[in-house]
Amino acid sequence: MGGAEKSFLKECEVLRSIQHRNLLSIVTACSVVDYIGSVFKALVYKFMANGNLDRWLHHKGDETSHKPLSLTQRLTIVVNIADALDYLHHDCGRPTIHCDLKPSNVLLDDDMNALLADFGIAIFYHDSWSTSTGSISSSVGVNGTIGYISPEYAGRGRHSTSDDVYGFGIILLEMIIGKRPTDPMFKDGVSIVNFVDSNFPHEIVHVIDAHLAEEWKDFAQEKKASENAVHQCLVSVLQVAHSCTNPIPSERMNMKEIARRMLTVGIYIW
């Protein structure tokens, strides 16, 4: 695959300098020449038994169906992702931009803890303004994945930490409404962002994922939490998502503030 070696080397460079409980850590790496003279390179990670978040959010007919994620599980997962990004942006010593946030790059361990993976196109913050993104290849021809890329990236041509914040916001929306940002329903000027905004806050019950809507009713019936508490929890999550996906990058919260906010959201139902 074109660009594979650059991606391999970039991931090695990033992973050797970061370590966090919510980042998928490397077990070992190898680079050998096989019997026909071809170079073989591999990164080895611990096996994540519960696969990736995308498979839990969007079940496919040819896969063994997972039990739908509960609201508590979804909140725990987004707190894990936020903590990982807070570390990358602010606490790892060399600010790092992931550049490709999406559910398929969020892996889940045996206990359903989320670990952020795939640093093949990650960049260090101070390098983002001196390195042309054209030198980093990806499967979609841009440095990231369509639907999760910030609107300013195309015009600027350089990544910043605010791009990761935007991608995180899209994941939040996807986890609440159960639709990918590339779903066919989003067309003719309607995006996942303005679709949710147009129903926020009073009509969110009509746009949230069907499993969450059912759980909303169960919480009230079983008196685990009041219906209003669940509503306030969802409103708080969507308020964070709204800030993350603000079209003006400077008006988005940074990941440290987001991580703090996400920790407080769960008090409504935990």
How is this structure best described in words?
The chain is built from nine helices and six strands, in the order αββααββββαααααα. The chain has 270 residues and is mostly helical. 36% of the residues are buried. The protein has one domain (48-268): Orthogonal Bundle (Transferase(Phosphotransferase), domain 1), CATH 1.10.510.10. The longest helix has 21 residues, at 71-91. The protein has helices at 4-15, 53-57, 71-91, 151-156, 161-177, 192-197, 210-222, 227-244, 255-265, and strands at 26-33, 39-45, 96-97, 106-108, 114-116, 123-124.
Q: Structural class, from secondary structure content?
A: mainly alpha
Main sheet strand line-up: 1-2
Show unreliable segments.
Answer: 129-141
Cα(first) to Cα(last) distance is: 45 Å
Descriptive tags:
mainly alpha, 270 residues, two-stranded antiparallel ribbon, Transferase(Phosphotransferase), domain 1
Write the layout of secondary structure elements.
Blueprint: H1 4-15, E1 26-33, E2 39-45, H2 53-57, H3 71-91, E3 96-97, E4 106-108, E5 114-116, E6 123-124, H4 151-156, H5 161-177, H6 192-197, H7 210-222, H8 227-244, H9 255-265
Antiparallel strand pairs: 1-2, 3-6, 4-5
Could you give a quick summary of the protein structure above?
The protein is mainly α and 270 residues long.
